[in-house]
Amino acid sequence: MIELHGVSRTVPSGDTMLTILQPMDLRIDSGRVIAITGPSGSGKSTLLGLLAGLDAPSTGQILIDGSDITAMSEDALARFRGTRIGFVFQFFHLLPSLTALENVRVPLEIAGASDAGPRADALLNEVGLAPRRHHYPSQLSGGEQQRVAIARALANNPPILLADEPTGNLDSGTGHQVIDLLIDVNRRRGTTVVLVTHDAELAQRADRTIALRDGRIVGVTDVHASTT
After folding, report:
1. Which pTM was predicted?
2. By the 8 A CB rule, do 170 and 138 touch?
3. What CATH number has the domain bearing residue 131?
4. Are 178 and 146 a contacting pair, CB within 8 Å?
5. Are 156 and 111 in contact (CB under 8 A)?
6. Residue 92 pLDDT > 90, yes or no?
7. Which residues, 6+ apart, have CB-to-CB distance to 128 below 8 Å?
């Protein structure tokens, strides 16, 4: 479970302070697919970065399965992220000099996994890219690169997967495949999936949508009422 208590984010902007997120309380139950929606500048990506521990809130607490990540040292937070949270970016962020297999192996090797190779192979097979394992990012389509990125994010079997506009850099057909994959990850693994999206189709596939505007939560909707 993810819990936010009085969480806000304010940053310097010239001679003043800019509030990106107003103080908010939020609870995300484990095993759900949550879509964070809203116009550009509403604070969606900032909220996701706070959940990932990539940024620190200006006020408040963030608890993940009872652990207060806002009270952790940088080293402790890095270890926590490495085992508990996977992150998928809009622009993939694959290492261009490494093959698809090598990109997926990186977090496994950092974690000291003795079976990094076979596990990376299994993950690429899971996302349907086993035949492309030895291709470099420049040899892969956008959708294929995002699949590699998802496999990499799942490398250490994190209970939480965060995705920032995962279909935002893809055409609609390819985006649909990535949506199916993310939903499948949730259904098969029980992974909590929290994603930021402008994609109405992706939001409708979520269990719950959280709408932001001007840094505030303006609506929470259970899309699939039967699952709540």
Report:
1. 0.88
2. no
3. 3.40.50.300
4. yes
5. yes
6. no
7. 147, 181
